[in-house]
Amino acid sequence: MRKFTIFMSATLTATVPAIAQDAAPAPAAPAAAPLSASEQADVDRGGVIFGSFSQAVRSDQISDQEKNALFGCMYDNSVKSISEKTGEVLAANPQIDATKPENIFNVAAVVCGARKAQSAEDAAPATPAPEAATPESR
What we know:
This protein is mostly helical. The protein has helices at 2-22, 37-58, 64-76, 79-92, 101-112. The protein starts with a helix and ends in a 26-residue tail after the last helix.
């Protein structure tokens, strides 16, 4: 029985390369059509969103509630849909610089419901600058 097993494995080893050479090569995949400018912008924005969301969920500066919302948004939605909605918001608000990754992250977080939208008045820093000591305040 052992000689038979060795004979069969030797026979298969010799015939498999011959069979593989006779097989027709796989057809080449058709070249993908080039992306339009808006599609390329969505892809680029999606990369920023994916990268910033993944950094945010590892950050100690983001609350657990916001991390869960960001992760849930990425889980339930495609990066493409998040990027498209973020692009719509950025296009509707030209005062937001759409080239800055932090702005893309903030808008995407609002789109996902992880953060609340800020109005112009709310955009002030959360901690006010210290007031100068005046003689009246002493």
